[in-house]
TrEMBL record:
It holds the Pfam family EAP30. Residues 1-10 have a biased composition (Gly residues). Residues 1-23 are annotated as: Disordered. This is ESCRT-II complex subunit VPS22. Residues 13-23 have a biased composition (Basic and acidic residues). It comes from Chaetoceros tenuissimus. PANTHER family: EAP30 SUBUNIT OF ELL COMPLEX, VACUOLAR-SORTING PROTEIN SNF8. GO terms for cellular component: ESCRT II complex. One of its GO terms (biological process) is protein transport to vacuole involved in ubiquitin-dependent protein catabolic process via the multivesicular body sorting pathway.
Length: 248
């Protein structure tokens, strides 16, 4: 009889666990459906906002970035194809055209800087060339943030383009060379000295061994990202883009 009671108790316990599991699944499904519905509602509200402020999005780079920052948490991409929910903004075409012009600037300067230059310099070159873009038939200004977004489009194409943050600056790398943290730190030291550095300056500033400095410098030198200048028996290494940007 004791075994029978234990068996019945165990059966009841399993039934209760099954009920709890079923209820948990129902709550989970209900929560997921509710969350999806909320996202859809927010997307509709976001579209209404975009329609109301379409002119500001087209004309004002700062307003455009704020709008895109509102879209990001919802996984909304207004840069998608013309047939999309967001086609009326025509932002995809704008960033595509900007990406093409950014690529032209970077590629044409590779022989001088080895394929690395600041986003600020890219923008300055475009402005000096008088490059203009239209967004929804409106000639619009473009910011450094717009250029960074355009580069992200190039990155997705596997073109070797990417952005790299060095200190407070964003740099554009337009070659497939993989730069590690050592190279980033060296570029940052160069920024602090207006572009020119020596191996001993790097070693003293960061606290590296001579071998570590040499390995990092050799790769940058072989890729043409820095220039070697001999002055009074010392080897100075110059980052063309950092030097130009600091003297602009």
């Amino acid at each position: 009889m004791r075994r029978g009671r234990a068996g019945i108790g165990g059966l009841k316990k399993k039934n209760e666990e099954s009920k709890f599991s079923k209820k948990a699944e129902e709550i989970k499904t209900s929560s997921l459906e509710s969350a999806m519905q909320t996202v859809k509602e927010l997307e509709v509200k976001l579209r209404n906002f975009a329609e109301t402020h379409q002119s500001s999005i087209a004309k004002d780079p700062a307003f455009r970035q704020k709008f895109l920052s509102m879209c990001a948490p919802l996984g909304v991409d207004p840069l998608t194809s013309k047939k999309s929910f967001w086609s009326f903004l025509n932002m995809g075409s704008f960033y595509h055209e900007l990406a093409v012009k950014v690529a032209e600037v970077c590629i044409s300067s590779r022989s001088k800087n080895g394929g690395i230059m600041s986003v600020k310099e890219v923008k300055n070159v475009l402005v000096k060339r008088g490059t203009k873009f239209r967004l929804n038939e409106v000639v619009t200004k473009y910011s450094e943030d717009d250029i960074i977004i355009a580069i992200e489009k190039l990155t997705k194409l596997g073109s070797g383009f990417k952005t790299l943050k060095v200190g407070e600056q964003m740099m554009v790398v337009s070659v497939p060379t993989e730069l590690d943290n050592d190279h980033v730190q060296i570029i940052q030291v160069a920024q602090d000295t207006q572009g020119g550095i020596t191996k001993s300056m790097i070693a003293n500033t960061i606290g590296w061994s001579e071998d570590r400095v040499t390995r990092a410098i050799d790769l940058l030198l072989s890729e043409g990202m820095i220039w070697l200048d001999l002055y009074e028996g010392l080897e100075y290494y110059w980052f063309p883009s950092v030097w130009k940007d600091s003297t602009a």
